[in-house]
Amino acid sequence: MKIGFLIPNKFVSHNFVCLMQGFHALGWEICTNWNFPDGLISRGISAPFESVSSDYLQKVDSNELTDDLLLVDVSDGFGDYFDKLCKLAETRPVVLTNMEDPANFRDYPECFIVFSAHFNRLATREGRLYPLGFNLSEDLILLSNAQDLSRKRNVIVRNFNDTFSQSVRNSLDLVFVKSLEKFFEMDRRRTSPSEYLSQLSRSAAICSYGGDFMPNFWENEQLRKNWEQEGQRTYKFKYLGAEPVVLRWDSWRFFESAIMACAPIQLDFGKYGFAYPTNPEPWVHYIPVDLSSVSSLPQHLSDRVKDDPEFMFKIGRNARQWVIENFSPRKQAEYVLSVVSSIWPKL
After folding, report:
1. For tag attachment on the chain, is the N or C end more exposed, with fewer CB atoms within 10 Å?
2. Pairing of strands 263-267, 203-207
């Protein structure tokens, strides 16, 4: 079968290209208006198609992308394609993907099937939305296979860049990381990609959480009136099940650390509503952070390591197995197909 990958604004997101690799692995014929390598942007340590072939991509004009199944990268918006895609969705499945930070604030018409990064079950929007992680590329899997992951030490990495939009990280710097330093050696180096590989390969765990705390702004009467007058729906959620809720929570570090068998430290998925197609298990695939008891976590983690020096290394190995089994390009393409087939059985 033939599948089209439409990039409306010549901006190609990481997980969109991972899906290209996945559908190719499933034997689909891949057509796209993307002219490799122009426009490929990836902040990860291994950009898709950096080291594996893209020769199977069939470059076509965007007007020719009327295939059995059409995927559209709307991370940078619809461009001039919105009306055309709505019309096309009447006769065939049109799938949208969005991995950008504002994904939590977008509504979509019901005609589309939407896969969104940063998916939170406690903050839902209008439309048929499904979770999608940042995902693994074939390139990153091959890169990880070439690393020596057997020489780890009980070192924890904290190497975030300072930004104005990471309230979760800033809060945990105050109440978690400072206490963590009393029990563990911390690696705070901000490194080049090659050095970062070495960091992950040699370390037991890494702080891989992110996101912003967001209260229910829509309940502020004056703000709501202003937004309604301006026709803005940014903060009007279909359902908001927590206050504050944690948005834009996913990170490159989570997938990079997992594939490098470095135990990810992340907010508790179940408690804070985070959703992947397949969620990791706390204390099995990642070290969970519960903000209501975070001050006791460093001591608890230290005690677990004293009882079993391999404790964090085991979580790292479990994380690697889990992420490969569930987030390889092929697995994510199969996941997308399973959702689409449930809506379009004749596909």
Report:
1. N
2. parallel
Do 152 and 184 form a contact (C-beta atoms < 8 A)?
Answer: no
- Which of 146, 144, 148, 140 lies closest to 50, judged by CA? 140
Q: Is the pLDDT of residue 66 over 90?
A: no
**Greatest Cα-to-Cα distance within the chain, rounded to the nearest angstrom:** 62
For 184, the token pair is: 């563990």
Q: Is the pTM of this model over 0.90?
A: yes
Q: How far apart are alpha carbons 214 and 236 in whole angstroms?
A: 12
pLDDT in tens, 263-286: 999 999 999 999 999 999 999 999
Element (H, E) at 239: strand 239-240
**Residue 59: what pLDDT?**
92
CA atoms within a 13 Å half-sphere pointing along the CA-CB vector of 310:
4
CB 290 within 8 A of CB 176: no
Partners of 264 in beta bridges: 206
The closest of 48, 81, 85 to 70, measured between CA atoms, is 85
What is residue 28's DSSP assignment? P
Residue 20: name the closest of 11, 10, 12, 30 by CA. Answer: 30
**pLDDT average, residue stretch 97-125:** 96
Which of 187, 217, 215 is closest to 200 using CA atoms?
187
Tokens representing 1? 């079968």
Element (H, E) at 82: helix 82-88
pLDDT of amino acid 50:
86
Give CA–CA dist 250/104, Å, rounded.
11
List of domains in the chain: 2-136+328-343 (3.40.50), 140-211+248-326 (3.40.50.2000)
Q: How far is CA 180 from the centre of its chain?
A: 26
Q: What is the pLDDT of residues 5-38, one digit of tens each?
A: 999 987 899 999 999 999 999 999 999 998 876 6
